[in-house]
Amino acid sequence: MPNVSTRCGVSGGIREGRTLLSRPGTDSEQAAELLSAGQEERVRAVMALGGVPFEELHDGVQQVRLRLLERVAKGVEPPRNVSAWAAAVASNLAMDWHRARHRSGRLEERLGSLRAATGDTDGGEEARVRALTVARGMESLPGAQRQVVVLRFYADLSVRQIAQELGIPEGTVKSRLHTAVRSLRTALHDVEGA
Fold first, then answer.
1. Can you tell me the distance from the alpha carbon of 91 to that of 51, in angstroms, rounded to the nearest whole number?
2. pLDDT at 193 over 90
3. Which of 38, 143, 49 is nearest to 96 (CA)?
4. What are phi and psi of 11, to 5 degrees?
5. Is 4 buried (19+), middle (13-18) or exposed (0-12) by CB count in 10 A?
């Protein structure tokens, strides 16, 4: 196995000065060390918000680890911001999942199963109605708009980071965000007015 050194200043992720792939151990053990627990949770959340069913989230995390491990093994410089890179990869995986399965299943059912799995049963009726309205609104968004909304408002990436990670102009990110937020706002106003 090659000896590949990496440098990245992201806390909790790949640490500066740490050598990867030079220690004995299995590939899966080394891949597990590439993402911190917080980054792994973020990947799961981005994929869940992107519409991937709860039971497939673990596979998505493994895909992100694999892509990072392949990148390091090829000698490619690791991403500057592993968290942003992992969130963008997770978002792309969610888009791929939709393309492959033609959006089978409803988003609110997936979110309900995620809530049940995490034990989140707190909140009033109004909060649940708002959450379902947002879920329906997210489900109705085109994939590209949903992707930038998740990366901007959940993964907390800047417009510049989203543009860099997705390989699109910043203006395109802003346009997609504007259109998506306007659609979600309209959906929320319709529910509040009813």
1. 10
2. no
3. 143
4. -70, 140
5. middle
Q: Which residues contact 150 (CB under 8 A, 6 or more apart)?
A: 46, 49, 50, 91, 94
Distance (Å, whole) CA 82 – CA 150: 17
User: What would the two tokens of residue 3 be?
Assistant: 């000896």
Q: From residue 116, how far is each of 60, 105, 112 by CA, in Å?
A: 20, 17, 6
φ and ψ at 33, to 5 degrees? -75, -10
Q: What is the per-residue pLDDT across 100-134, written as a single tens digit (0 to 9) for each?
A: 665 444 455 555 555 555 555 555 677 777 777 78
Q: What is the pLDDT of residue 1?
A: 39
Whether 110 and 53 have beta carbons less than 8 Å apart is answered as yes
Q: Which residues contact 15 (CB under 8 A, 6 or more apart)?
A: 8
Residues 68/35, Cβ–Cβ less than 8 Å: yes
Distance of CA 90 to the CA centre of its chain: 4
- Give the pTM: 0.50
**Res. 172: pLDDT tops 80:** yes
CA 167 vs CA 13, 60, 154, 164, 172: distances in Å: 23, 21, 19, 5, 10
